[in-house]
Amino acid sequence: MDFKPAPPTRLRLRLTATAESIVRSGHPWVFSDSVQEANRPGQAGELAVIFDRKDKFLAVGLFDPDSPIRVRILHVGKPQTIDGAWWQAHLAQALARRAGLFDATTTGYRLLHGESDGWPGLVLDRYDSTLVLKLYTAAWLPRLAEMRTLIQTHIPCERILLRLSRNIQAFAEKGFHHHDGQILHGAPPEGAVIFSENGVRFEADVLRGQKTGFFLDQRENRQAVEALSRGRRVLNAFSFSGGFSVYAARGGAKSVTDLDISAHALESAKRNFALNTKSPAIAACRHETVQADAFKWIEADPAKFELIVLDPPSLAKRATEREGAIRAYERLNALGIQKLAREGILVAGSCSAHVSALEFFEAVRRAALKSGRKFAELKTLLHPPDHPAGFKEAEYLKVIYLKFSI
Ligand code: SAH
Questions:
Q1: Rounded to the nearest whole angstrom, what is the distance from the C-alpha of residue 133 to the centroid of ligand 1?
Q2: Which of 96, 156, 233, 353 would give a disulfide with 396, using CB separation of 3.0 to 4.6 Å?
């Protein structure tokens, strides 16, 4: 006789009252200690259906038994079947949100931005004809083949590359034979991938670079810096591959200095300038690189600059580091202000989700007030539309622009 295993019953969960109302209000995370009842143990990536107090469907999400975020919500509201057609419509919705945002001069941007786009723990970036799929949770691993087919079918591309956050790499290798940098579709890229952003050409190290190879989230700030750079000597601290610098050069900066601790990043910045020498302004701009610890160099070096970009890596990796990070932001920006020439402009950024926009802006304003110099606030910028932030924990990016008059 041929026995087939019975199909597993759907994983059904009940939550604490507080978690239930948080989910109902649209928050995408259910923490392990909020799960009150489960009909059986669940596996990574399976769908978990959440029922409310009245036994009515509340939400459905991706289960992850190994993560403190036990369920990542895909849908909340009326009952829906998550099948191929649902995924297709879900992808179409995210793509529609980007319709009209970019013209042909911009071929690098984010297509799927995690939770805030309805794709919790998943990011998809376009770099010209290369797509980079980055996973931050193991819950996607059992669905990877399905997602690859979905993406390949609906988004024209030459290749799809897989990137995995460090915390899931071992599990992905052992359980699924997937590795960071794996080619999911097409041929491997020959070297760095070149894309364009507002007509500026950049390389992205899609196989090994931070995030998916480039900081696409700073596009609007790069444009703002371009518009402020004419005739100025510009310092780009924590420059990475010189994104702000190439824009500053195109905007007519007299000189641009890239400052980063990583030689690898500075080599990439040089190549990014070389990619754009067709632009007379970029070709004419003096470009220097300095490999040093930015905190130490800014304090020790005597030169002054007329525009300074300070965009450090996250200074608070976890919530407990929040207060120390706020102090570090104030200190860093105080150092930056000391290095500003008369009538200089400070462009101060933070990408720490644990420090709120207000806390960060206040820290920079404090540094400016304590300097005793007169200044005006030009503007602040938050998330660009291809990196939406739909809930508090997703808000990480903030930049403030101050112009000093003495
Ligand atoms: N502003 C960049 C992104 C910054 S990422 C952009 O828009 O593309 C952070 C960068 O800071 C990385 O390149 C890293 O190498 C560099 N970095 C980290 N710690 C540093 C330090 N103490 N001094 C100088 N650079 C540092």
A1: 23
A2: 353
- Can you give the residue range of the structural domain that contains 267? 215-404
Domain identity same for 336 and 225:
yes
Q: Which of 240, 266, 310, 331 to mutate to test the pocket of ligand 1 (most atoms within 8 A of CB)?
A: 240
Residues lining ligand 1, Cβ inside 6 A: 215, 218, 238-240, 243-244, 260-262, 265, 293-295, 311-313
| % the chain with pLDDT above 90 | 97
Nearest-angstrom CA–CA distance, 48 and 38? 9
CATH number of the domain residue 65 falls in: 2.30.130.10
Number of domain units in the chain = 3
Q: Are 159 and 229 in a shared domain?
A: no
- Closest residue to atom 19 of ligand 1, CA basis: 261
Same domain flag for 253 and 390: yes
Contact by Cβ (8 Å): 108, 241? no
> For 84-105, what is each residue's pLDDT tens digit?
999 999 999 999 999 999 999 9
Q: What is the tens place of the pLDDT at every residue in 1-11?
A: 556 666 679 99
Query: In this structure, are 318 and 222 located in the same domain?
Result: yes
Asked if 28 and 72 touch (Cβ cutoff 8 Å), the reply is: yes
- In a domain, residue 200? The reply is no
- Shared-domain flag, residues 265 and 327: yes
Within a domain: 3: no
Please name the residues in contact with 207: beta carbons below 8 A apart, sequence gap of 6 or more.
161, 181, 189, 213
Q: Are residues 233 and 347 in the same domain?
A: yes
Mutate to test the pocket of ligand 1, among 202, 220, 238, 335 (most ligand atoms within 8 A of CB): 238
The closest-lying atom of ligand 1 relative to the alpha carbon of residue 349 is 1
Closest residue by Cα to residue 312 from 244, 366, 246: 244
Strands (E), 166-301: 183-185, 193-197, 200-204, 233-237, 255-260, 286-291
Q: pLDDT value at position 191?
A: 86
Tell me, in angstroms, the distance from the centre of ligand 1 to residue 340's CA: 20
3-state secondary structure of 291: strand
CA distances for 160 relative to 153, 177, 181, 186, angstroms: 12, 17, 10, 7
